[in-house]
Amino acid sequence: MYFLYRLFHQNELLLLIILQLLNVFFTIFCQNSVFMIFHVDEDFFPSVTFISCPFPVTTASRLSLYQLTMSSWLRTPNSKIMITLKREEFDPLGFFTNQLEEKYGQNSLIFTDSIESDENGIPYIDDWFVKGMDKSTTDLVCWINSDIVIPDGWYDRIRFLHSFFFSKRKQFGAISRRCDFNYRINNSSNYNMYNVLMNDYLTKNHSKINKSNELDGMTVDYEHLKENISKIENKLRSLKFSFDDDYDEIAKDRKRHSKWGVDFFLISKKPMQLNIDEIPNFRMGRYRWDPWTTAWLNQNILLVSLGNNFCTYHVNHKPTDRRADDPLNKENFEIAGRNGKLSAGNHHAKYSLDDGKLFKYGNKLVKSDIKMRKDNAPISNDIND
């Protein structure tokens, strides 16, 4: 012992080095073995508005799709849907909106004026985000594609993130991977009858319907609608429709999509530390706007991916045309180029959530004390997946 005392006493530099190494060792040990437990307020459930810019409910296939996806959104606690169309534009017959409001309440749906669009009627992304942020009054705002199902376990994760970052007085955003699955749009006689009634109404109102029975453009005389809607109301009432809610079973054959796929952007409203006006006027439904938005959020607020093994469900995936020589894709590419050439996917988010544990750049931060549903993405043997 005397020898060691003399050694360290005469060589203070050696002692300092050893102490520094011990400090590094214990820091690494703690980061990789111990989580601080974060206690979520058991009485607080943050409210969320889902912002959607869907096609009008003018075919039975869209009716069947929206019954699946939008009901999954409204099953989320304290939720509502904001549709960026006027009510009569989105649902000329009023049948689907009445269905949702009967099931989820009169305040479950909000309608706005249509968002700004180009000469071909393609909406601009920036106005979609601005309208959603300005007109929502909930704790959280979620811009989402109309073909996305929110599965069980999503809200638990979002609730934990909101509680944690709000306690730090930080604004956060959330994204997740998606899993694609094929869904057979309901082809029962009731849905066929819906098509007949809708086509009859649209034809009488001089709407243009193309060969695939999809709506090209709609010039609807709404006063005429009010006069004639009673004639088909009884027929509509006689039609029976059900809402599927066993989403895991419906999407049981789901497959992982690329890590670059992002189909919703959720942002907390308080404290507001983000300038939403910085989003450029990308065209919706065209490639390049979503990786730019992911990277922009990652730069400006605390962006969290819900993990590599948790996904939302994407109905009937159709590959996006990513050709840069496509005129509208080219314009989105050019807009991204003029705005920093930003690009990111789920795997680039600064924060990630895995099995109730929050990581920052792979380092452990905290663990939630609320029980979360286990991950739902199918197991993959691809190390790059």
UniProtKB/TrEMBL annotation:
Annotated organism of origin: Tritrichomonas foetus
Domain of life (superkingdom): Eukaryota
Alphabetic keyword roster: Coiled coil, Membrane, Transmembrane, Transmembrane helix
Lineage of the species this protein comes from: Eukaryota, Metamonada, Parabasalia, Tritrichomonadida, Tritrichomonadidae
Transmembrane segments: 12-38
Coiled coil: 215-242
Protein name: Uncharacterized protein
